[in-house]
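Dear all,

This email documents one entry for the complex benchmark we are building for the journal club exercise. For each entry we list the sequence lines for every component of the assembly. Then comes the predicted three-dimensional structure of the complex as a token string, followed by one or two observations. Please use this as the template for your own entries, and keep the labels exactly as they appear.
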Amino acid sequence: MLNTNIAVLVSGGGTNLQAIIDAEKSGIIKSGEVKLVISNNPSAYALKRAEQNGIKTEVITEKDTASFEKRLIAVLGENDIDLIVLAGFMRILSEDFTSKYDKRIINVHPSLIPSFCGEGFYGLHVHEAALKYGVKVTGATVHFVNEIPDGGEIILQKAVKVRKGDTPSVLQKRVMEQAEWKILPKAVETISKEISKGKSV
Ligand code: GAR
């Protein structure tokens, strides 16, 4: 069976990218391999993590969506990418793009979708909104990406308790540790395995 070639798209710190790299090393991810890390932010620390692990990187900074996605499609094609993982990627992809990669793009979102998701809900804002609402349980979701922001089919979810006195950053850290860094690698393996089956001769 041929391995699934994975591209991870990032914008910031890249702790979810790190979780994927670690899961590949420990054998949790065995059906796929991270071949490429793409960032829309040249100073993303995630790029350093990729370099430290010998993974090829690309930076795409085009401001307008059509030029950005044209370049993205070219880079994905040149590297024979089968699966695109959005791991803290802070740009919304157009329907033009997502329809070309049906069931081939997954995203991790730091809440239990359909709560606190969609446009404007990213990073710390998600946890601020959860605390403001007063939910007692939040969590993370891994889902397929389609034309609706955070609207694609859910693959995995994990709940995390909100504690008294939580600040957005304390809650963010707990959601990452207890949910995101666990369910994202798991989902990457599940989907890679599926794709690999289709690639076998
Ligand atoms: C993560 O919490 C991720 O779920 C979130 O941004 C953070 C990125 O951290 N993504 C979104 O909010 C997307 N809507 P990381 O760069 O350390 O992985």
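Observations: The two ends are 7 Å apart (CA to CA). Residues 12-16, 46, 87-88, 108-110, 122-123, 126, 176, 180 surround glycinamide ribonucleotide (CB under 6 Å).
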